[in-house]
C-alpha cells in the first residue's frame, strides 16, 4: 500500500487548519479557510481631555474686564485644586480597595499538576482502549459531527500495526503495546486507523520520530491500517496518507485513506484536517495531555492511570 508520509511536527498546526467537515457533502478546497486568530488585535484609542466652551467674543468688555478675568482665574484655580484633591483621594481609595480585595480573595487551588511521562519507568501503567478511545464517537468540535469509531484494539504485539524496518525500529526501542482504532470521518468519504505506541523512553520516541520518514520514503516500512469489517478494506489496501508525532515516551500515528479506495493527492485538504484532528487534537492534546497531568483534590484517584 503506497503511503505518502506526513510527519506532524510537535506543537504545530497543519498548513491550512480547517474545521472537520459536517455529515453533508464536503466543501470545496477553495472554501476551506484558516480560522480567525484566537485573540484578535484590539483597537486602542486615546481620548483627549474635554475642553471648556469658548466664551462669546463680546463677553465682559470694558473697565471691569480685568476684574472678571481675575475672578474667573481664581475660581478656576480653586476648582482645579479641588478636582486634584478629589482625584488623589479616589486613587488612594481605589488602591486600598484593590489591596483589600486581593488580601481577602484566596488564590484558586490548581486542579491538576504535571505528571512525568518521559519513560515507562516513571509511567508504568499500560494504556487501555477506554483511555485512548473512551466512546463510540470522537468529537473534536462540539458544533460538528463526530468521527465514528468502528473497531478498537489493544495488543502487546506492536508489529501488527507496522511492517518492514519500522517493525525492527520499534522493537529495538522497547515497544510494549499499541492501542489503535479504525474510524470513519463525518462525511463517510474517508477512513482512518490511528493509535499510540508505548515505547521505553522519550529519547527513543524522538529517535523513532526522526527515523521513520526515510523508511517510508524508501518504501522500507509503513504503518498498517486495520480493517474494521466490510467496506473498510481500503484503509489497509489502498494508497494512504500517514502521519506521526510524539509526546513523552509515546509515538502517535494515523493512516488516512479514501473509503472508495481511490488515490488522492498529497495536498488533499480533508486528509490533512483528519491528520490534525486525530494526531494533534485527540491523541496528543487530549489523551496524552491527560496522561501527562495528575488531578488533585476530590475525585483525583478515579482519573489516575492504574499502576
Describe what you observe in this structure.
The structure is a single chain. This protein has 307 residues and is of the alpha+beta class. The protein has 7 helices and 11 strands. The protein has helices at residues 65-104, 129-132, 165-172, 202-217, 234-237, 269-291, 300-303, and strands at residues 3-7, 112-114, 137-138, 147-155, 162-164, 177-184, 190-198, 221-223, 240-247, 250-258, 293-295. The strands form 3 sheets. A 7-stranded mixed sheet has the order 1-9-10-7-6-4-3, sandwiched between helices. Strands 2-11 form a two-stranded antiparallel sheet. It has a two-stranded antiparallel sheet with strand order 5-8. Helix 3 packs antiparallel against helix 4 (202-217). It is globular, with a radius of gyration of 32 Å. It starts with a strand and ends with a helix.
Strand and helix layout:
Elements: E1 3-7, H1 65-104, E2 112-114, H2 129-132, E3 137-138, E4 147-155, E5 162-164, H3 165-172, E6 177-184, E7 190-198, H4 202-217, E8 221-223, H5 234-237, E9 240-247, E10 250-258, H6 269-291, E11 293-295, H7 300-303
Parallel strand pairs: 1-9
Antiparallel strand pairs: 2-11, 3-4, 4-6, 5-8, 6-7, 7-10, 9-10
Amino acid at each position: 500500500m503506497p503511503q505518502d508520509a506526513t510527519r506532524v511536527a510537535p506543537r504545530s498546526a497543519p498548513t491550512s487548519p480547517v474545521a472537520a467537515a459536517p455529515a453533508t457533502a464536503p466543501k470545496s478546497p477553495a472554501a476551506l479557510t484558516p480560522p480567525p486568530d484566537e485573540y484578535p488585535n484590539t483597537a486602542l484609542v486615546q481620548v483627549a481631555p474635554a475642553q471648556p466652551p469658548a466664551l462669546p467674543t463680546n463677553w465682559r468688555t470694558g473697565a471691569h474686564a480685568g476684574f472678571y478675568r481675575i475672578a474667573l482665574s481664581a475660581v478656576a484655580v480653586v476648582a482645579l485644586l479641588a478636582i486634584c484633591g478629589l482625584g488623589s483621594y479616589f486613587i488612594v481609595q481605589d488602591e486600598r480597595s484593590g489591596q483589600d480585595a486581593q488580601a481577602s480573595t484566596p488564590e484558586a487551588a490548581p486542579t491538576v499538576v504535571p505528571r512525568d511521562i518521559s519513560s515507562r519507568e516513571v509511567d508504568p501503567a499500560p494504556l487501555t482502549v477506554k483511555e485512548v478511545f473512551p466512546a463510540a464517537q470522537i468529537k473534536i468540535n462540539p458544533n460538528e459531527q463526530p468521527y465514528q469509531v468502528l473497531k478498537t484494539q489493544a495488543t502487546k504485539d506492536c508489529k501488527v500495526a507496522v511492517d518492514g524496518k519500522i517493525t525492527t525500529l520499534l522493537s529495538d526501542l522497547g515497544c510494549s503495546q499499541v492501542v489503535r482504532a479504525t474510524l470513519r470521518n463525518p462525511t463517510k468519504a474517508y477512513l482512518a486507523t490511528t493509535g499510540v505506541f508505548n515505547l521505553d523512553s522519550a529519547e527513543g520516541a524522538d529517535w523513532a520520530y526522526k527515523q521513520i520518514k526515510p523508511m517510508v520514503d524508501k518504501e522500507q516500512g509503513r504503518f498498517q491500517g486495520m480493517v474494521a469489517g466490510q467496506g473498510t478494506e481500503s484503509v489497509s489496501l489502498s494508497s494512504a496518507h500517514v502521519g506521526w508525532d510524539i509526546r513523552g515516551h509515546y509515538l502517535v500515528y494515523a493512516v488516512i485513506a479514501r473509503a472508495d479506495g481511490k488515490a488522492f493527492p498529497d495536498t488533499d485538504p480533508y486528509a490533512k484536517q483528519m491528520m490534525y484532528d486525530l494526531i494533534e487534537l485527540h491523541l496528543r492534546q487530549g489523551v496524552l495531555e491527560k496522561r501527562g497531568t495528575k488531578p488533585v483534590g476530590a475525585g483525583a484517584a478515579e482519573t489516575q492511570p492504574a499502576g
